[in-house]
Amino acid sequence: MKRGKGMKFVGDSRIPAERKPNIPKDYSEYPGKTEAFYPDFLLKEWLVGAVFLVGFLCLTIVEEPPLERIADPTDTSYTPMPDWYFLFLYQLLKYSYASGKYVLLGTIVIPGLAFLALLLAPFLDRGPKRRPSQRPFATGFMLLTIALIFYLTWEAVEQHDWEAARKQGEIRTQVEVDKTAEGYKIYQEQGCISCHGENLEGRGSNPALVGTEKSVDEIKDIAKNGIGSMPPGIFKGTDEELQKLAEYIKSIEAE
C-alpha cells in the first residue's frame, strides 16, 4: 500500500488558504460616510463647543449668581442645601432607614451598592444585541435608576421651604456698632445676641435690627409682647432699660 493511498483530506471553507495580515478595511470604500478627523471633524467639535461656551457666558452675565451671606459658624439654625444634582441623596437621608442610627446605610451602603451595580452592569449583561428591548436587564436597571433619582429629587424640591431658605441666606447689612454703649450692654445682657447677632445683623430666620423702620414704641412693644416666632416675655429688664435698648436699636442706621 502506497503512502497516502485511500486517504481523503477535508478542508474548511471558513479558513482561508492564504494567510492575510490583520489590516482593517479602507474606509474610503464608503464615500460620504466618513470624514477626516483633522480639520473637518475637529472643526465641528470646536464650533459646537464655542456655541455652548458663549451661551454659558451670556447666562452668567444676564442671571445674577445666587450668592448668600458670609457663613456664620455660630448660626446653628442655618440649613445648608446641596446643588440640584445631589438633591436625591439629600432627600434619601431624610428617611428613617437612612438617617439617625442608620446614617451609614444612607451615606455609604445604599450609594455604594448603586455604584457597584453600575460598575458591574457591563459584566452582568454581556449579550451582543444593542436594542434596548432585547437587553431587559440593562434597560430595566437604567429606567429604575432614572425613576428613583427623579422621584427623590422631586420630593426634595417639594418638601424644602424655599422662602425660609431665602431669608436665612440673604445678604444682610453689616455695620460696626458701639459695643461700649449702655444700650448695647442691655442688648447683650438680655440675650438678644443669640437671635439677632453680635452686630444686630440678624441670625438664621431672625431679622436684622440694623436700620429698622419701626419706632421706639414699636420696638419696646415687640421686646415685651413678642412678634411672629418671637415669644412674649423675652425682655426681663426694667422700663428704663427697655427705653434705652429701644432707643439704641433705633439709632443704628444702615451704611
From TrEMBL:
Q: Which PANTHER family match?
A: CYTOCHROME C-553-LIKE, MENAQUINOL-CYTOCHROME C REDUCTASE CYTOCHROME B_C SUBUNIT
GO MF annotations in UniProt: electron transfer activity; heme binding; iron ion binding; oxidoreductase activity
Positions that bind heme c: 192, 195-196
- Heme in keyword set: yes
User: Has UniProt tagged this entry with the keyword Heme?
Assistant: yes
**Name of the protein this chain belongs to:** Menaquinol:cytochrome c reductase cytochrome c subunit
Q: How does it assemble?
A: The main subunits of the menaquinol:cytochrome c complex are a Rieske-type iron-sulfur protein (QcrA), a cytochrome b (QcrB) and a cytochrome c (QcrC).
Pfam families, from UniProt? Answer: Cytochrom_B_C (PF00032), Cytochrome_CBB3 (PF13442)
Species of origin reads Caldibacillus debilis GB1
Q: Which SUPFAM superfamilies match?
A: a domain/subunit of cytochrome bc1 complex (Ubiquinol-cytochrome c reductase), Cytochrome c
Q: Classify the protein's membrane topology as the record does.
A: Multi-pass membrane protein
Q: Tell me which UniProt keywords the record has, alphabetically.
A: Electron transport, Heme, Iron, Membrane, Metal-binding, Transmembrane, Transmembrane helix, Transport
What is this protein for, i.e. what is its function? Component of the menaquinol:cytochrome c reductase complex.
